[in-house]
Specification:
mainly alpha; 308 residues; 55% helix; elongated; 3-stranded antiparallel β-sheet; hpI Integrase, Chain A; DNA polymerase, domain 1
Length: 308
Amino acid sequence: MARPKSTPERPLPAALSAPCERFLKAMERNNGLAANTLDAYRRDLNRYLHHLSAQGVERLEAVQHQHIARLLHSLRDAGLAASTMARNLTSIKRFHQYLLLKGATTHNPAELLEPPKLERRLPDVLSVEEIAALFAAPDPDEPLGQRDRAILAVLYATGIRVSELTALQQEALLLARGLLRIRGRRERIVPIAAKDARTLRHYLRQGRPHLARPDSGDHVFLNAQGGPLSRMSVWKIIKTAGDKARIGREISPHTLRHSFATHLLEGGANLRAVQELLGHADISTTQIYTHLDLSYLKEVHKTYHPRG
């Protein structure tokens, strides 16, 4: 798949870069965006402003919708996903809305541009048997294996995001009550089953002390050097476990989150309850999990329908 050629970028004119920096600071201050989201805005707008500069645009007031449309066309021609193009357009629209609100421009050139239609893919879900095989993959006698088993247990037992997992502090573990306090996009309390709490407690007592250093801090999950575990490391841990378990397809931390939600709904959980557990602000985000495997639906029909 083609990608834009990597060429040295010339410094942006201050008339383009300075308003962008003010916008990013305002977003961080007023919207409380996560660092990952803020980084995405920065990347999108950096690409956009260099695109404008290359077209000879030196002032944001001079931007027309054609300039933005050309960027979207170039992203499409480079083979970028529709979701990436849509995110870029969202970043650009919010930037111009900010400029308009601050009186820096008199129009929003992105206002009438429509994002590309996104293909709504159903999330990949592991079966209960695959989950069991995944949990059995790490070595339970090694500190790193104990950590990895605890990571898998927490992700599947609670459905938290990988960013919430890596940010988890020991003071947020309410294991005696079977609860975790999650501080992320939406702070919430989530339950953890006794079996998974035991797996986590075993890591804390046996595995973590072998990884910890004097400056390790309070992070629950540590790397081999005693530092906080990164999101990328968690992805690698899950990929390795998936390979050992012979899952046969690519899996990620989000696969466990998808599986958590789907298995709850298949078990009869209320959609609103699943929304709260996942930390979704909008229930429409949770509704994608209402897809159920066709074989499962057939089994339900056969079991419960009078003429099944």
